Amino acid sequence: MSSNIILVVLGEPNSTFSELLFKYFKSPIFKKNRNKIVLIGSKKLLMAQMYQLKYNFKINEIGNVESALLAKVNIININFKFKKAFSKISKSSNEYIKECFDKAISLIKLKKIKKLINGPISKIHFLQKKFPGITEYVASITKTKDLVMLIYNEKMAVCPLTTHVPIKNVSQHVKKRKIINTVNKINDFYKNKLRKKPKIALLGLNPHCETTNKISEEKEEIIPAIKFLNLKRNNVSGPFSADTFFLKKNIEKYDVVIGMYHDQVLTPIKTLFDFKAINVTVGLPFIKVTPDHGPNFQMIGKNKSDPASIFYALNFLNKIK
Fold first, then answer.
1. What domains can you pick out in the chain, each with its CATH number?
2. pLDDT tens digit at each of 321 positions of the chain
3. Which residue, 42, 131, 239, 313, has fewest beta-carbon neighbours within 10 Å?
4. pTM for the full model?
């Protein structure tokens, strides 16, 4: 059945992602995995990276997801020409990544697969400034609007209202309607996938939620949004000042913190939970999860990278139907 398949787009060829996957596949946890994991990428490249990193296990190449086996490394091959196991980013690697994504999305649509993990990608090179991030790229190829980025840990998750927007433009996007839509999508996700009604905190935009200007985003947009949401029986509090919010008492009290811009919430959660967090794209007709790390060019080939995030991602998807 397609409901127990996890597609994994291998992503940037020049990254530590394959190393992290190898560590998962060699762990006892993999044998207990209740989902069939299907990699989408180059089998030859994966084997070359496996050989260089000194891992050894069989790769089950399949032509369709119906042939996938439990506790096996299944792969749908996407051809890619390369000279070295870990080679520099190029035009051909960008084309390869696009082909992997296209294959994954076509399988999701055709087979009604509900779970996707994408490996890290160099946004500067692959997206070439056409999209601010992978979230927006996936929104484009799936023709989905208003996606929400949720950086999830079971103790607390965070969400930037604006994702990869330059700081000078953030205030233009802090709008009542956008806040309401974001909260509604997070509530739906928690209700439908995690069987929980979340307690949500909203941060302010300005230091101490105050401004000396005539325009106050807190008074004009954030507070009216909170009042409207709570009239609809949501559990939303705020706005809180970001500089003092991430204390132990608040982490224990709230399930989700919505900040107004990217680093306002991503910096604290990465500090608090290290690699034990995942990027969940909320609002797609399927669940897309990205491990919370980039290509990590400095550690390529060293076999010393922390695999915690890919373990967390796969364990998370195992719990969701």
1. 1-144+284-321 (3.40.718.10), 151-274 (3.40.718.10)
2. 577 899 999 988 888 899 999 999 999 999 888 899 999 999 999 999 999 999 998 999 999 999 999 989 999 999 999 988 887 777 788 899 999 999 999 999 988 899 999 988 887 788 877 887 788 888 888 888 889 999 999 999 999 999 888 999 999 999 999 999 999 999 999 999 999 999 999 999 999 998 777 779 999 999 999 999 999 999 999 999 999 999 988 889 999 999 999 999 999 999 998 878 899 999 998 999 988 666 666 677 778 888 888 999 999 998 887
3. 131
4. 0.90
